[in-house]
Design a protein that fits this description.
2 domains, Rna Polymerase Sigma Factor, Chain: A, Arc Repressor Mutant, subunit A, 9 helices, mainly alpha
């Protein structure tokens, strides 16, 4: 053991990593004890296992990137594009099912970013009519898209 620890320390230059390497070596030696040839140098066999374990770990660490908070990994992930396309198709189908008056108000308020007042002025109607149409348009979209309506959410429907 002391010889293995000295050799591990010469490779790692770190007492904690050297101790871990010796532990790994002993574990690997135990797992492959059936390959040990009796009447051969056990110290040489263990030293070879330690050296191979060190190089394997070294190669593995060279390929890995430290990312304890997984910030780097999160920056590499990309949401699948086909899901967005499917949502867009579903929304287009749902919009086509709305009556022209409801669709017009929804498009003006949501897509054109007009206020209710601006929409009422553009369509020459009361603001209450715009609010009512917006409510009905959102409710119908929710039903068509498979989401629950406002009344169902609050236990009234």
């Amino acid at each position: 053991m002391p010889g293995l620890l000295r050799f591990a320390l010469s490779l790692t230059k770190d007492p904690v990593r050297a101790d871990d390497l010796v532990q790994e070596t002993l574990l690997r030696a135990w797992r492959s004890r059936h390959t040990y040839q009796p009447d051969t140098n056990i110290a040489g066999w263990l030293t070879m296992i330690l050296r191979n374990a060190f190089y394997t770990g070294h190669r593995r660490r060279n390929r890995e990137i430290e990312d304890p908070d997984e910030v780097y990994a999160a920056s590499l992930s990309i949401a699948p594009a086909q899901e967005d396309g499917l949502h867009l198709q579903d929304t287009q189908v749902a919009l086509a099912k709305l009556s022209p008056k409801l669709r017009e108000v929804l498009v003006l308020v949501v897509l054109n970013d007009l206020t209710y007042e601006e929409t009422a002025a553009k369509l020459n109607c009361n603001i209450g009519t715009i609010k009512s149409r917006m409510f009905r348009a959102r409710e119908q979209l929710a039903v068509v898209l498979g989401e629950c309506s406002r009344f169902e959410r609050y236990g009234r429907g």
